[in-house]
Amino acid sequence: MPFRRIRDLIEAALTELPQTPVLAAFSGGLDSAVLLHALAESEAVRARGLRAVHVDHGLHEDSEIWARRCREFADSIGVELIVRAVDVMRSPGLGLEASARRARYAAIETLISPGEIVALAHHRDDQAETVLLKLLRGAGPEGIGAMRPLRRLGRGFAWRPLLLLPRAALREYADHHRLGWIVDPSNADQTIDRNYLRMQVMPRISARWPEAESSIAQSAAWARAAAEFIEAEADRALARIQGLDPSTLHFREWLSLPTALRDPVLRRWLRALELPEPTHYQAAELVRQLGEAGEDRQPCVRWPGTEVRRYRDLLHALAPLQFPPLEWVADFDGRPLQLPLDLGILHIEGLEGTARLPTPLRVRFRRGGESLRLSSGGRTRELRDLFQEAGIPPWKRGRMPLVFDADDALIAVADVWLSEAGAALLAPLGARFVWTPAAGGARPAGDHLAIDLADALS
């Protein structure tokens, strides 16, 4: 019987789970009412510790009444219920349903104790709808694999013990136990894609192919297995082709990956850097530009929150950059100077007490044509050539502070290069320039002074 099958599914699944408490997500609807009741009926769950959480989204005028009904239901079966009210903020590119889901999970994550299991009431019909929605949005194996029975969630796990059961089995359980539940009128709103699928599309599919939901769920399981294999291979590939700087990737090796790996590697790389991922079109555009651009080009593909640029043999992933205005200039006496944007602080280390520089300095950013003499007797070098020889990407060059003396001669490029005149100025003081970019600022990897002060004066 359905009610026994639900109990047996829960009892069997518990043996594979960590011995930690269970937190049931409880909306008050049919599905979550069945799940919470079935969990409360299990002695094994009770022994672990069972509580429930209801998230009040405040999107319906009766939401406070629903919260009270949820508390009454939980009290009737002896389960502690936590009610959390949230403000649903519409995120760019997300509909109201997705924004509410994001707010709901965020609220639940704040309640999870380490290792705690969050029980969710998704069932086989939900899984079939999710697979179809993912297909209509052009998802790959990861998306088509849909919902996992168990996955990480915050400090604990999300668990879906009813994923193999059809909605009809939950309805029979509710009827058998005479459960009451809340009917959310938004579930009948067919402008919401999932509701339209549930009410208009799935009945027609099932009428023609009665086993459709079961078959779609089976396909999701196969896709999930394929996605997990691809994930493991993508991890290995990323470790192999990532540069010494984690924000870089060897672009030729990335392009030569099998098509099934190229996109997952790109997304895992960006995810680790906490950068937004591209659409499929944007990822394809990156492949196209890298394949067509000559060696002397520096292709860049942008999308909201991310830029991926190629310089020489590497791809660089970064948040969109801002560049300081060309007219920005500041007097500099060695004390900490706050630079514009996210470019941090420049100061001279080693100026003790009331010591001051014998000549005033000014700081600005690159305008083009700058040059400096690096060592005694050496020739004057174009800053452009120094940047190229050092392999500093072009987009970082205009964000490095330049220090000029009273005669407008360049004496230092941040704390990377020091001129002969700059060394003569600082060496008697035992001082040096120090540039500390703000978090997320643009310091070239492996920066260091190109010359030692003693060598410069020799």
What does this 3D model show about the protein?
The structure is a single chain. Helix content is 41%, strand content 18%. It has a 6-stranded mixed beta sheet, with helices on both faces. Strands 11-14-17-18-19 form a 5-stranded antiparallel beta sheet. Helix 2 crosses helix 8, helix 6 crosses helix 9 and helix 10 packs across helix 12. It has 17 helices and 20 strands. The longest helix is centred in the middle third of the chain and has 30 residues. The protein is elongated, with a radius of gyration of 30 Å. It has 3 domains: 217 residues, Rossmann fold; 77 residues, Chorismate Mutase Domain, subunit A (Up-down Bundle); 129 residues, no CATH class.
Could you provide a short overview of the structure?
With 458 residues, the chain is α+β, with helices and mostly antiparallel strands. It has helices at 2-14, 30-41, 43-48, 63-76, 96-109, 124-136, 141-144, 167-177, 193-208, 212-241, 251-255, 259-272, 280-292, 383-390, 394-397, 420-426, 453-457, and strands at residues 22-25, 50-56, 80-85, 117-119, 150-153, 156-159, 248-250, 300-303, 306-311, 314-318, 329-332, 337-338, 345-349, 361-364, 371-373, 380-382, 402-404, 410-413, 417-418, 432-436. The longest helix has 30 residues, at 212-241.
